[in-house]
Design brief:
Elements (H helix, E strand, L loop, with lengths): L1 E5 L2 E5 L1 H9 L10 E4 L11 E7 L10 E5 L2 E6 L3 E7 L2 E9 L6 H4 L3 E4 L4 E5 L9 E3 L1 H8 L3 E3 L19
Parallel strand pairs: 4-10, 7-12
Antiparallel strand pairs: 1-2, 3-12, 4-7, 5-6, 5-8, 8-9, 10-11
């Protein structure tokens, strides 16, 4: 395991460290876990599909992290008041946001598949730990709810199919 501090952000490498961080993400998270506030994402090129996951709440709120999985691989642990935006190749992809699934991590094994069209942007609102499921939201409604939320910036994606959108949305 290695830990690095770069530009005020903590980067942890190693599976054990990552799992430990996800399991304890319900503790108060410092402001450095988040980057810039949400601004509307640009349209994506016709060669890619864009996904924006978001979670309402107050940054630092005591709540379990929602592990975001893409094609059965960990992307990030989304905290309350945060969002993540990333791109993948068009086609069918396993996407899930799961809370309290340690230590078995069944959420990444039993993913629903979503067929993404080329050039499409999909907004997904993360469900709650009490059983509300994640759901696709229209761009207009999502961007109203995203106002004031902050981009997650505390973990490095491990999902091999995730790539930069090339439109400033990052990953």
């Amino acid at each position: 395991m290695s830990i690095h501090l770069k530009s005020g952000f903590l980067t942890i490498t190693g599976v054990a460290a990552l799992l430990s961080l996800c399991a304890t993400a319900h503790a108060a998270i410092p402001a450095t876990a988040f980057a810039e506030r949400y601004t509307p994402v640009a349209d994506v090129t016709a060669q890619l599909s864009q996904v924006v996951y978001y979670r309402q709440g107050i940054p630092g709120e005591a709540a379990p992290a929602a592990n975001i999985y893409v094609d059965q691989e960990f992307h990030t642990a989304l905290l309350p008041g945060g969002f993540t935006a990333f791109c993948v190749q068009p086609g069918a992809h396993g996407l899930s946001a799961v809370q309290n699934d340690a230590p078995a991590y069944q959420g990444k094994q039993q993913q629903p598949f979503l067929s993404l069209e080329a050039g499409e942007t999909v907004f997904i609102k993360v469900g709650t730990a009490d059983g509300n499921v994640s759901r696709i939201i229209s761009r207009e409604a999502a961007e109203q709810e995203l106002a004031g939320l902050q981009r997650q910036a505390h973990l490095v994606s491990r999902a091999s199919t995730v790539q930069s959108c090339g439109n400033g949305a990052g990953q």
